[in-house]
Specification:
The complex is a heterotrimer of chains A (107), B (266) and C (265). Chain A is of the alpha/beta class and 107 residues long. Helices cover 36% and strands 28% of the residues of chain A. In chain A, α1 (25-37) packs parallel to α2. The relative contact order of chain A is 0.19. Chain B has 266 residues and is of the alpha/beta class. Chain B has helices at residues 46-53, 76-83, 101-112, 117-130, 146-157, 176-193, 204-210, 228-232, 237-250, 254-263, and strands at 8-17, 20-30, 35-39, 61-66, 69-70, 86-89, 164-168, 196-201, 213-218, 221-226. A six-stranded mixed β-sheet of chain B has the order 6-7-8-3-9-10, sandwiched between helices. A four-stranded antiparallel β-sheet of chain B has the order 2-1-4-5, with helices on one face. In chain B, α3 packs across α4 (117-130) and α4 (117-130) packs across α5 (146-157). The chains are: A alpha/beta (107), B alpha/beta (266), C mainly alpha (265). Chains in contact: A-B, B-C. Chains A and B meet through α1, α2 and α3 of A and α4 and α6 of B.
Chain lengths: 107, 266, 265
């Protein structure tokens, strides 16, 4: 499965696995939008993510914007390596709230 | 450079245009993640070589292997799959004049993916931002300058996040500032997206700045493939001429110059 | 002497070979487009866009040229028929010549002038600017995406334009015959209705559909093969290819016209 969903504090945590690309980013999008629709804030955990393409990034942008409009939050957790570089290339590391560890997430 | 198998392997490539032989026994490999510059003057066969790599031309003999696909003999389906992993930025952008810049950039996604309209829009804008073209989405190509067209063409080439990017003459016809920006962009793309990039150019300066390795073509033959330093220190007189031509042009022989201006000769 | 003879034969031979090659290209080009009708999603959006270009935007030209054509043939027929004392045949004569012959041919000439030339130039410029290479590299099939919608649009739009041309031609004939020369309105209209049979309409329909196909086929091909057929690929090549397309599609259209007429009369 491309993602695993768990509950952490009052957040829904979506852990992305392996590679998010053109083929599976629609699944991630569907799940993210569903969580936000229910009115929950999201943590997107990058710790087991090895690659994310621009359709995945675009999905995060869309979800982030929806979250903002609903006064919810979307936080990126443990971004490193390739996925972090892609965020930096698109300057989104300065837009998304980012934390290094799940334990850094505040109540 | 890793020791994995090369992403591009060209073996004993020969190509003819009518009776004339354009490429003579061309051999080279490009490794994954490498920036390779194919350099040569006009008539050196570099454009023909590019067209072979893009499977737009069929060679007389020899083989081309890209990402484990035999490009010369591949069937339509295999070639189509390979091409979805390749991006090509053409010299003049090659944008479709009947569509806006945004529609042009989204075209490959609309054709090959089932992504949501919102995702596609954001992806296109991300690439436009990257190319410093934010806000130009709704303009027609005819309203853009040459440099902008080139960058828009590059945006379209990378919209599917290709493994392999071909770039034809990135700096031709651009002012020095824009051409430096494009060089930096090429380096950024490789680093962040781990693309393999093949650049075809006649510009030495940008070649020296971006290349991991340079393949120099003369009259359809490879004179040398090597790192920037290897090229600079080559004994090959033709390569030295190519390198030195630039500085020689900048020296002015006053007497000859006046003669040229007044008589048109010399 | 012998030498110059061989030279002449050689040059004739090479011209013949080039013509045959060119005809072969035209044939494969059409076969490629037609084959995209099967196993591909029909390019509906593009076809509608092209219908607008080929059809809707040609309407004003068709209305004006139809009106004048009708007026002028009514004038000619009136002058002829009055000598035989049979002006009541005017309506039938005007309608018959328009529906069977003049409508399809004149409307097709207008389409060549407006759509054929523009299409050939557009496709030629696309070729020059490497847009077809770009399509190939994006794994987008240009026969399916660019050519098929234009051909289909022509097959639909040209018969409709021809019908409009006929209606306005008959109206023009009415203006000249009934309003200017005082032919009775009843004679003009009932004469027409009594004489025209389904076969006449069918002939006009078949002709105009084929003409539409021929015009776009030739115009698209001449632009698409610009890089092979023209020595100078630049602006000069585009203008040369456009001229070739206009001339060839006009001639071919008249040839098809004769064939269909001879089969149906």
């Amino acid at each position: 499965m491309i993602y695993q969903q768990t509950t952490y504090l009052h957040y829904q945590c979506l852990q992305l696995n392996g590679e998010v690309d053109l083929h599976n980013s629609p699944q991630v999008r569907k799940q993210l939008l569903a969580i936000l629709k229910k009115g929950d804030s999201v943590l997107v955990d990058f710790s087991t993510l090895s690659y994310i393409d621009s359709s995945g990034i675009a999905t995060l942008v869309e979800a982030f914007n929806i979250a903002k409009n609903k006064q919810l939050t979307l936080t990126i957790v443990a971004a490193s390596g390739g996925p972090l570089q892609v965020l930096e290339l698109t300057n989104l590391d300065k837009v998304f709230p980012m934390v290094a560890n799940l334990t850094d997430v505040k109540e | 450079m890793t020791t994995t198998s090369p992403i591009i392997t060209v073996k004993n490539l020969n190509s003819h245009y009518g009776e004339r032989q354009i490429l003579k026994n061309v051999n080279f490999c490009v490794q994954q993640g490498e920036i390779r510059v194919i350099m040569g003057g006009s008539g050196s066969g570099k454009s023909t070589l590019l067209n072979h790599l893009l499977a737009l031309l069929v060679p007389t003999s020899g083989s081309i292997n890209i990402d484990d696909v035999d490009v010369v003999n591949a069937d339509a389906k295999t070639l189509s799959n390979l091409r979805q992993k390749m991006g090509v930025a053409f010299q003049g952008g090659a944008l479709f004049s009947s569509m806006t810049v945004g529609e042009n950039i989204k075209l490959p996604l609309k054709h090959h993916t089932q992504l949501d309209e919102n995702t596609i829009d954001i992806m296109a804008r991300l690439k436009l931002e990257l190319m410093n073209l934010a806000g130009f989405e709704d303009l027609m190509p005819a309203e853009l300058s040459g440099g902008m067209l080139k960058r828009a063409g590059l945006a379209r080439a990378v919209i599917m996040d290709p493994k392999l990017l071909f770039f034809d003459e990135p700096s031709a016809g651009l002012d020095p500032v824009t051409s430096v920006e494009l060089d930096e962009l090429i380096l950024k793309l490789r680093d962040a997206m781990n693309m393999t990039i093949v650049v075809v150019t006649h510009e030495l300066e940008s070649a020296f700045k971006i290349a991991d390795k340079i393949t120099v073509l003369f009259d359809g033959e490879i004179a040398l493939t090597g790192t920037v330093d290897e090229i600079k220190n080559s004994d090959d007189i033709r390569i030295q001429n190519l390198i030195n031509r630039r500085s020689r042009n900048e020296k002015i022989n006053a007497e000859q110059y006046i003669k040229r201006l007044t008589t048109g000769q010399g | 002497m012998f030498n110059s003879l061989t030279l002449t034969i050689e040059s004739i031979g090479s011209v013949v070979v080039r013509r045959i090659e060119s005809a072969g290209r035209l044939g494969t080009f059409l076969a490629q487009i037609v084959s995209r009708l099967w196993g591909h999603k029909f390019p509906l959006g593009e076809t509608i866009k092209q219908l607008h270009f080929v059809g809707a935007r040609t309407v004003p030209l068709i209305l004006i040229s139809g009106l004048f054509t009708g007026m002028v043939i009514a004038l000619q027929f009136y002058d002829t028929l009055i000598r035989f004392g049979s002006v009541e045949l005017l309506g039938a004569a005007v309608a018959m010549s328009l529906i069977r012959e003049l409508g399809p041919v004149m409307a097709a000439l207008m389409v060549i002038a407006r759509v054929g030339s523009a299409t050939c130039a557009e496709i030629g410029i696309m070729r020059n600017e490497q847009q077809f290479d770009a399509l190939d590299c994006m794994a987008i099939d240009s026969y399916h995406y660019i050519m098929l919608p234009r051909l289909i649009a022509a097959l639909i739009a040209v018969p409709l334009l021809t019908a409009l041309f006929d209606v306005f031609g008959i109206g023009g004939g009415y203006i000249v015959g009934v309003l200017i020369h005082g032919v009775s309105e009843g004679a003009y209209l009932t004469g027409m209705a009594d004489t025209i049979v389904w076969n006449d309409v069918l002939m006009g329909l078949i002709k105009s559909t084929l003409f539409g196909g021929v015009i776009l086929w030739i115009s698209l091909a001449k632009g698409f093969y610009l890089h092979i057929e023209q020595k100078n690929a630049g602006a000069e090549g585009v203008s040369q290819a456009t001229t070739n397309a206009v001339v060839l599609s006009a001639v071919l259209m008249l040839f098809v016209d004769y064939i269909v007429s001879s089969l149906m009369i």
